[in-house]
Amino acid sequence: MNIENTKAQMRKGVLEFCILSVLKDKEAYTSEILDTLKNAKLLVVEGTVYPLLTRLKNDGLLSYRWEESLSGPPRKYYGLTEIGHTFLNELNGTWTELSDAVNLITTKKQ
User: Fold this and answer.
1) What is the pTM (predicted TM-score) of this model?
2) Which intervals hold domain Transcription regulator PadR N-terminal (predicted)?
3) Position 2 in a domain
4) Residues 6+ apart with CB under 8 A from 56
């Protein structure tokens, strides 16, 4: 069994939740989102994030706007839609329940 594959699957499972959480209070462009995830030790690559952002936008959870940049091409800033905020609130509740259950099971004395 490949432990790295299992760890990658666990990270992938929470990536959508983490991206929505990054955008909870402010808009951000992709590089900022990636930096936040990397600083939290959630190892991701651009090739994973770009399709996910597109899917979240197509699902109505994110909106975006273009902004000119002084240091290069225009940047696409993503933000949560009203539906995105509602969806994130639901995910927060689910995460709390799941985290509590996993902690209960994994820390239980035998």
Assistant:
1) 0.85
2) 19-89
3) no
4) 16, 19, 20, 62, 84
Provide the token pair at 97: 């329940």
pLDDT in tens, 40-59: 988 777 888 999 999 999 99
**CB-based burial of residue 88 (10 Å sphere; 0-12 exposed, 13-18 middle, 19+ buried)?**
buried
Any long-range contacts for 3-6 (C-beta under 8 Å, 24+ apart)? none
Our count of domains for the chain comes to 1
Give domain status of residue 50, yes or no. yes
Let me know how long the chain is: 110
Instruction: Tell me the three state secondary structure of residue 14.
Output: helix
